[in-house]
Design a protein that fits this description.
By secondary structure, the protein is α+β, with helices and mostly antiparallel strands. It has 2 domains: 7-226, P-loop containing nucleotide triphosphate hydrolases (Rossmann fold), CATH 3.40.50.300; 239-324, OB fold (Dihydrolipoamide Acetyltransferase, E2P) (Beta Barrel), CATH 2.40.50. The protein has 9 helices and 18 strands. The chain has a 6-stranded mixed beta sheet, with helices on both faces. Strands 13-17-14-15-16 form a 5-stranded antiparallel beta sheet. Strands 2-1-4-5 form a 4-stranded antiparallel beta sheet, with helices on one face. Strand 15 (280-287) and strand 16 form a beta hairpin. The longest helix is centred in the middle third of the chain and has 18 residues, at 169-186. The protein is elongated, with a radius of gyration of 24 Å.
Length: 327
Amino acid sequence: MRTSLDLELVAVTKRYGNAVAVNNITHLFPAGSYVCLLGPSGCGKTTTLRMIAGHETVSDGAILLSGRDISHLPPAKRGTAMMFQSYALFPHMTVRDNVSFSLKMKGEDAATRGRKADEMLELVGMGHLAARLPAQLSGGQQQRAALARALITRPQVLLLDEPLSALDPFLRLRVRGELKKLQRELGISFIHVTHGQDEALALADQVVLMNNAVIEQAGTAREVFLTPRTEFVARFMGGHNVLSLDGKRYSLRSDRTRIVAPQDRGMDVAVVAHEFLGTHVAVNAIGPGDTELTAMVPEEEFRLAPIEPGQGIRIGWNPADLHPLGH
């Protein structure tokens, strides 16, 4: 169901000469949702984000925000704001001046823009660092300063281009939790580009998975992970085996496979490698027709009966866990 604040792409295409970067995509981004544009490098996700922001022109189609076509408006007139991957902070300006810069360009007086900048910096937990220069900040602090600068324009939609990619793994986990909390508090739409499946699953109300310039599948994080429509979706999201059985293709979650007795229903495979993952050990194997399978074995079970590369085992599953795939 549409609302007055939805963002909608209508048959949007982007061409660079003869190359098609985004091919005729139509999608509704519900108001107030956290959406992750997910996909491999070169799939069109960043180009889509930049077209929404106004940093790339639309070759064909329309971008509607609150029912209004914003396709041909400059970035500052769209009701969107973009946080760049590089953060793009001015090195010679204080954090406060960086955050308030867009208000200065709009002609707001120094007192007003300073007050608004301080409010935004408090919102992202950076009020005590307002007088510092970007070089005096950690990566996570620079990220928050860039976030405050994007939010100060009070956008209806915040666009984030791989905002966590420059952070170390520990900080990335912490900051993604802060992003989700902030989005809920503000109640505006966040559209977040990432190539990280774990990041998308953790953050998104809706995942839009792109491949080869089109949307391969869109839905809640749970829907896209649990019910992939195609082999590409199953393989890209991870945690799935792809099997060909009786002339049909299926996905089978790795955590639903198990090692069974030789006489049980299943598939004979040769172990290639195993990886310790803490609570489980991932056992990677090759079956008939070079079928690659991964079984997740509980750590204590593996410890009692270790499996080594080159060993033959039988992997089984519950037929109800097989999910049919389309093309």
